[in-house]
Amino acid sequence: MAASERSLRELIEKWLDASGAASARIQLQPGARQGNRRCICVEAQCETGILTLFFFRHGDGLWHVFPPDERPAMRVTTAA
Question: How far apart are CA 58 and CA 13, in angstroms?
Fold first, then answer.
C-alpha cells in the first residue's frame, strides 16, 4: 500500500514504531475542525523525552504530517 493510501492509525503506528514509543495519547485539536479540516495531536513518551506529532487531514481525505497548502485569501469586489 502506498504511503498516501495509509489510514491514520497505520501512519501513527509507523511513526511510533520508528521512535520506539510504547504508548501514545491522541487528541483532536480544539478549533481545528473547520469544514473538513482536522488536526490530530499525538504525544508519545520515548527514551529521549516526549515526542509530539501533528497529523493533518487534507482535502482529498488523506492524512499527512504537513498541513494542507490552503491559505486564507481575501477578495475585493468593486461595484460596477
Answer: 19
pTM of the prediction? 0.67
Confidence of residue 71 (pLDDT cuts 50, 70, 90): low
41 CA to centre of own chain: 7
Residue 79 grid coordinates: 461595484
Asked if residue 26 lies in contact with residue 42, where contact means CB atoms within 8 angstroms, the answer is yes
- The β-bridge relationship of strands 63-64 and 49-57 is antiparallel
* 38: Cβ contacts below 8 Å, ≥ 6 apart: 28, 29, 32, 56, 57
pLDDT tens-digit profile of 22-69? 778 888 877 655 554 688 999 988 888 888 999 988 888 888 888 887
Q: What is the distance between the alpha carbons of residues 30 and 67, in angstroms, rounded to a whole number? A: 16
Burial class (CB in 10 A: 0-12, 13-18, 19+), 55: buried
